[in-house]
Amino acid sequence: MTVTPQKEATVRVWRGEDRASGDFKEYRVPIDPGMVVLDVLFRVQAEHAPDLAVRWNCKAGKCGSCSAEINGRPKLMCMTRVSSLPADEPITVAPMATFPLVRDLVTDVSFNYEKAKTIPNVRLAPPGPDGKRRMYQEEVDRVQEFHKCIECFLCQDVCHVIRDHEENKEAFSGPRFFVRLAALEMHPLDTNDRLELIRAKHGLGFCNITKCCTEVCPEQIHITDNAIIQLKERVVTEYYDPLAWVKRRVLSKRPPAAGQRPTDIGDKEPAGPSER
Amino acid sequence: MKELRDERTYDVVVIGAGGAGIRAAIEATAQGAKTALVCKSLFGKAHTVMAEGGIAAALRNVWKEDGWDVHFRDTMRGGKLLNNWRMAQLHAQEAPDRVLELEEWGAMFDRTPDGLILQRDFGGHRYARLAHVGDRTGLEMIRTLQNRAVELGIDVLMECTIQKLLVDGGRVAGAFGYWRQTGRFVLLRAKAIVIATGGAGKAWKITSNSWEYTGDGMAMALEAGADLIDMEFVQFHPTGMVWPPSVRGILVTEGVRGDGGTLRNKGGERFMFRYIPEFFRAETADTEAEADRWYDDKKNNRRTPDLLPRDEVARAINTEVKAGRGTPHGGVYLDIASRRPAEHIEKRLPSMLHQFKELADIDITKEPMEVGPTCHYFMGGIRVDAETAATTVPGLFAAGEAAAGMHGANRLGGNSLSDLLVFGRRAGLGAAQFAAGQRAPGAVDEREVDELARRITAPLERGASRTGAPAPGAEDPYRIHADLQDTMQDLVGIIRTQRELDEAARRIAALRDRLDRVAVRGGRRYNPGWNLALDLRSLLTVAEVVARAAATRTESRGGHTRNDFPETDPEWGKKNVVVRKKDGEISLTPEALPEMPADLKAIVGEQPKPSEQPAIEHTAPARAGR
Q1: Chain A residues with CB inside 8 Å of B522's CB?
Q2: Which residues of chain B does A57 touch, with a Cβ-Cβ cutoff of 8 Å?
Q3: N or C: which end of chain A has fewer CB within 10 A?
Q4: pTM of model > 0.95
Q5: Bridging pattern class, strands B185-195 and B171-179
Q6: How, if at all, do strands B155-157 and B5-15 pair?
Q7: Per-residue pLDDT tens digits for A64-104
Q8: Which value does ipTM take for this structure?
Q9: Which ranges constitute the DSSP H helices of B192-337?
């Protein structure tokens, strides 16, 4: 990827207030070196369509507001360089397909905020005798990977369980919330038990591990390997392994005592470090 | 208009859902108040998410010599002693508890080798003090607070822009605005309101701020009768990206320097050694060798001048570039590639690595970055009581960047996130207690609301009257905004003069006339042109106030530098410039600062003693997330 100065670009932007009547509209705008797709849309707003609806905020890949489908790929508009797209064809920008349309490129993502309300938050074990809580970087690392999530909802957008099946939305929370659930379940000091909820209410079983979510994650979280598969294994162990079932019922979920270095931080090593 | 509006009634309405706003809503709810949290964008996207380096709190996990008194001293000195001393004291004393509370709610900070919260070095802080998560601390903080707010079942009003505070006989009665997704009006009746709307950095062209930061809360509070102070103090963060043009202004964390990065001019010189001010000379290294040793041995060495407070570093970069010693794209170099191994950079600064690779084709483990100052933060804002965060209007409270006093003339890096938590909590508490003493919200004046509704839809009506060609004299909101950004960038930047400030005030007045003729195409449903036209009203008010406050303060101090008054004047060191609006007229008056008690004065005057021992082996490899 190099900074190749382009003079002009053609962008096809989806315009409209509902999916049936809306359509792509073409605009031509001047291009400066380094421009991202969001910059192109700002130019469209300033020069052609002041009312073009675009949701954005930080313009630095940190807030996850400007998700869209660029040339058919779910991406952040603020992190997609114009120079990374084919120069000889128009740039196509469409709203995320999985969520109801508000207008133009803006969708109603309240599905996600409603799902968030159904997840029991962290409940920590009390601090150690010195009043402090201790956690070690090794155990924190795997949870921090999940905390990188910027809630762009691109993984939700691309997930075929809900993208192609509106009827599944009720019973399936989607990859973003499996990441959140994994973070909570792997928190070394958390005492809440959510496995029954994960199985019964969040629809983990719907996921058949196609890894589409992992591919589009702008934070390069290993959603499938490190979150979903880990949760699936925990659910399997809890509900379908009779020995483990008895053991867990008797011992319940117990975090390592505060101040004690854990010797075992999980059943399975997480996948390798991200490339970032 | 009544048929077109939603109406809701609360004890406490918090406007703004960054760190301060969410923390305030959490506290108000915990106190039993029925609370609403209003976000201009989606929940969890506010600017707190952009904070990178960390939260300053004297946890004493890395240096046992640290304490609230040292943090207080650093904050006051960083603010050039113009801070509200009581706010600075409460902040330093309460920050550790607020950080531990975040941990209780699920935040996972980087750890020391013995499992405690790790702390990093930052500008102006004597000890490694910033609790952090790699270089994405703000994301961890806002998501933790967001999850807590969800857990408490707080009403969150997303993509809702408040346009005016409603007042009844001097007391807060509610707020009026519109939903961005539908354009429908919303009236919130409330016994108490907390303003946590952040700053107005979008008035400048080169800025780290997003579209949201248009000074709404400051302008609305001024309109409602509250005082603003310190509006002349705007922080230009020394290190924003400068190339390519489309990313100019995006923040580069101070953590780069905290972790060993150094500033160089085009000749390769570490120029900061030439810019050590007298005020910080005793505590700043004057040779490169001492500065480099300081990272590992704070006992025998003084802090590198790369980590002087932000105002000093931003001015130094500005001077280097103006003297022709800048980089090809008008910045200076920030070099960590030659100073730390690639693995260290990947672990400690993953977001910066990603940002430069994706947006500028620069591999920061191999090449230096090009950086320059970017408009970042308002030290000034709404005047508040230190204990309760109450403004001068009964029932109106303020916290975070929208409030003023805590940071004086210049904010230290890391002190913003702790400010949000400490005073967000105090504002939520103050508002809930005030609301508990009120039987019902004040009365809403329906005529006022009707008039407001007409003002809000006027730009669309002017736009709709056009058929094809623009009506004569119609103004475009994007054009007005761009012209304001040019004005503030050129005339109210890091270095100011009377002539330029007067010119800025004149141009802003002209922009205000143009705003009266602003016309917007389209409807009310998610129409950014219309939304911008409405935001410009508060942005122009705040821009005017900044220019006039800067013209009033005839000295140089912290984030306010006057070319025509280059000296720091001890007399001005005792005064805030207070901004008020009465009968439609804005007045600016210098007023005395609260007097600091003698015991605190002694702490501020103290110089570092050579007896500082690390509490732990702090050079042990600090492993960051990712």
Answers
A1: 50-51
A2: 41, 45-46, 49, 210-212
A3: N
A4: no
A5: antiparallel
A6: unpaired
A7: 999 999 999 999 999 999 999 999 999 999 999 999 999 99
A8: 0.92
A9: 216-224, 255-258, 288-294, 310-322
